[in-house]
Amino acid sequence: MQKIKLELKDKPLEPLIKKKSLVFTPKKIVLFFSFLFLILVVFYFWKEVSFLVRAPFLEVNQPPADIIVNQDKFEIMGKTAPFAILTIEGEEVYVDKDGNFKKEVSLNNGLNIFKIEAKNRFGKSRVIIRRIQFNQ
Description:
The structure is a single chain. The chain has one helix at residues 26-53; strands spanning 58-62, 66-69, 73-80, 85-88, 91-93, 100-106, 110-119, 125-134. Strands 2-8-7-4-5 form a 5-stranded mixed beta sheet, with no helix packed on it. Strands 1-3-6 form a 3-stranded antiparallel beta sheet, with no helix packed on it. Helices cover 21% and strands 38% of the residues.
């Protein structure tokens, strides 16, 4: 008996490295959503804890840093967190639902220093000092 040797010359060459295709299995889908849920839970707790340990936002729009004026009354205006307790020179000031506040103060001749403090219910506070020079 004779052996017949067959050779196929038109056979395509197989690649040396087989490419893995992206396959979505139920296990991979569950792992993905579990990981996503875990990230969201950690982010939520981070936001809640940072709310407790940070001082409230405080911005004073008027007066700008340090100014010189020639009128004896001046209005201090700004914005803070709506839940903050705001005081100017120890006197509590009304804060509206958007966090805006304003208070008219009387100035003495010379340098007037105002301490503006926003405090949350956990005792964390933020202070801004403004100096207003009043010249008659």
